[in-house]
């Protein structure tokens, strides 16, 4: 492969993408940032200059597994120290699989401020996709808030809790943030052919449901009346929301691209129609000829109960009643250099009280604890994770959470409603042609089961991709094969107990 060299300057700038002027974080003056274009097996090198003046930064390459380069995953507190103002950090990694991926800030809540973009990895010459098309276009769907990221973050972590609320706009640009979205193009069906870098057995939808951190490829045939344009619409689902629909024009040449369609934009599906969303998830299978059969059994099962809790009066999200917080010294460095004192060494819980916990009701006791402890996985073992959703702290309310795993793709083994049953539900797993993904949603009051092989030496975050939920503790970290991790670059060090290139041991 070739080297694709990018030079980026990250900086605050005033922008008004929806006619409301606010500070955004731009890369080389743009938000979304520049698209990284590469071919399979190329090396991407991004020289990142932090010109934020008063803020640190780190960028994660979402969907890129970082095989052999776990230190360039870009997860502040997990794989690297933050990049200080004025500093330049060089990320260098191989894009080993074709597909469309994302990159975004992984520090505080900077993603929300506009620090994200696309990574497009093309097939090598002479190899073709199992479908045909004439043109391709990439679209990023995102939420857009008028409040500054700092104001939002402060609201979320204050005793006088203030929720980020509903986004003021959903920009026309795959979903990245708070909302589950529906995307449709007036008068045109879409054939889903790929998701998260894996081919899908094609299926047709009128609207595509998409969750933060997911990517999809769809085929659209331009076979409608060419004398007009059509609406492309995104709208918020899974929450009752006042966010205006995101609108764009699907242009038929030679109409002017800004000529409004003569129709009223189509209304999206009703926000609380969870069954259609589940139906789409169930329709997704690996494409014939491209199936990676899953291991038929697993070595370990971890059940993760997703709940909203209170800790010392603060609203938090937790997994098995433990709300996650990041350590000051990144795990990757701590584990490799045996700085065991920098994080809590007690393993987090493997499950919750299945017998007594009623997931369908608001709990009497909403307290939880917080910790930065991690799951240590046996290298090369097969791990099942069951995401179990539950009621929040409000009666009759459960939210959708899209979970993203760093460093791996996992098989989506199954989905279900209600409480996962350890004995009967695994019998219904798809052991034949499950899709592999890096992000999957767990629906309100439901469960999602996934399986992966712990074969990528490193330390990897697994978290809800709603930025404010992760910020409020909805995540965990896995370690595997730390002894097989090569020598760490010193560029990732400098914070916590790794200051000045020396390791501080108590
Ligand atoms: Cu795209 Cu840790 O996330
Ligand atoms: Cu969430």
Automatic annotation (TrEMBL):
Cross-referenced CDD domains: CuRO_3_AAO
Main subcellular location of this protein, as a coarse class: secreted
Domain of life the protein comes from: Eukaryota
Domain Plastocyanin-like: 10-122, 179-254, 364-481
Gene Ontology molecular functions: copper ion binding; oxidoreductase activity
Keyword line: Copper, Glycoprotein, Metal-binding, Oxidoreductase, Repeat, Secreted, Signal
Pfam families in the cross-refs: Cu-oxidase (PF00394), Cu-oxidase_2 (PF07731), Cu-oxidase_3 (PF07732)
Named cofactor requirement(s): Cu cation
Family: Belongs to the multicopper oxidase family.
InterPro entries named among the record's database cross-references: Cu-oxidase-like_N (IPR011707), Cu-oxidase_2nd (IPR001117), Cu-oxidase_C (IPR011706), Cu-oxidase_fam (IPR045087), Cu_oxidase_CS (IPR033138), Cu_oxidase_Cu_BS (IPR002355), Cupredoxin (IPR008972), CuRO_3_AAO (IPR034267)
Subcellular location: Secreted
The protein's name in its UniProt record: Cupredoxin superfamily protein
Record-level GO cellular component terms: extracellular region
């Amino acid at each position: 492969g070739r080297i694709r060299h990018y030079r980026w300057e990250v900086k605050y700038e005033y922008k008004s993408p929806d006619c409301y002027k606010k500070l955004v974080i731009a890369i080389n003056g743009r938000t979304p940032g520049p698209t990284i274009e590469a071919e399979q097996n190329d090396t991407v090198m991004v020289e990142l200059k932090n010109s934020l003046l008063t803020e640190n930064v780190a960028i994660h390459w979402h969907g890129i597994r970082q095989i052999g380069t776990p230190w360039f995953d870009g997860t502040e507190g997990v794989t690297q120290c933050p990049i200080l103002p004025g500093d330049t950090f060089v990320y260098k990694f191989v894009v080993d699989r074709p597909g469309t991926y994302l990159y975004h800030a992984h520090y505080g809540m900077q993603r929300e401020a506009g620090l994200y973009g696309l990574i497009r990895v093309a097939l090598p010459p002479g190899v073709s996709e199992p479908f045909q098309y004439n043109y391709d276009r990439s679209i990023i769907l995102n939420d857009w808030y008028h409040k500054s990221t700092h104001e939002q973050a402060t609201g979320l972590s204050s005793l006088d809790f203030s929720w980020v609320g509903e986004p003021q706009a959903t920009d026309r640009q795959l979903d990245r943030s708070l909302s589950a979205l529906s995307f449709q193009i007036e008068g045109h069906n879409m054939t889903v052919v790929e998701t998260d870098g894996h081919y899908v057995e094609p299926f047709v939808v009128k609207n595509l449901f998409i969750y933060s951190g997911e990517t999809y490829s769809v085929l659209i045939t331009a076979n409608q009346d060419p004398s007009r344009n059509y609406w492309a619409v995104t709208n918020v689902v899974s929450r009752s929301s006042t966010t205006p629909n995101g609108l764009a024009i699907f242009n038929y040449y030679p109409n002017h691209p800004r000529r409004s369609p003569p129709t009223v934009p189509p209304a999206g599906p009703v926000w609380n129609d969870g069954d259609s969303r589940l139906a789409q998830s169930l329709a997704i299978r690996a494409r014939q000829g491209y199936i990676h059969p899953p291991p038929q059994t697993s070595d370990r099962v971890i059940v993760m109960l997703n709940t909203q809790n209170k800790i010392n009066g603060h609203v938090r999200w937790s997994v098995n009643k433990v709300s996650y917080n990041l350590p000051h010294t990144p795990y990757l460095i701590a584990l490799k250099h045996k700085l065991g004192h920098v994080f809590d060494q007690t393993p987090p819980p493997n499950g919750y009280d299945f017998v007594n916990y009623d997931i369908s009701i608001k709990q009497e006791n909403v307290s939880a604890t917080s910790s930065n402890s991690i799951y240590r996985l046996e290298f090369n073992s097969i791990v099942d994770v069951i995401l179990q959703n539950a009621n929040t702290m409000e009666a009759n309310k459960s939210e959708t959470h899209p979970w993203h795993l760093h460093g791996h793709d996992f098989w989506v083994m199954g989905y279900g409603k209600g409480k996962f049953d350890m004995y009967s539900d695994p019998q219904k797993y798809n052991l034949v042609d499950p899709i592999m993904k890096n992000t999957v949603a767990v629906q309100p009051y439901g469960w999602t089961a996934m399986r992966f092989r712990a074969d990528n030496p490193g330390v990897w975050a697994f978290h809800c991709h709603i930025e404010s939920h992760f910020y409020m503790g909805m995540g965990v970290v896995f370690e595997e094969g730390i002894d097989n991790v090569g020598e760490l670059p010193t560029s990732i060090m400098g914070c916590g107990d790794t200051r000045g290139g020396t390791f501080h041991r108590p």
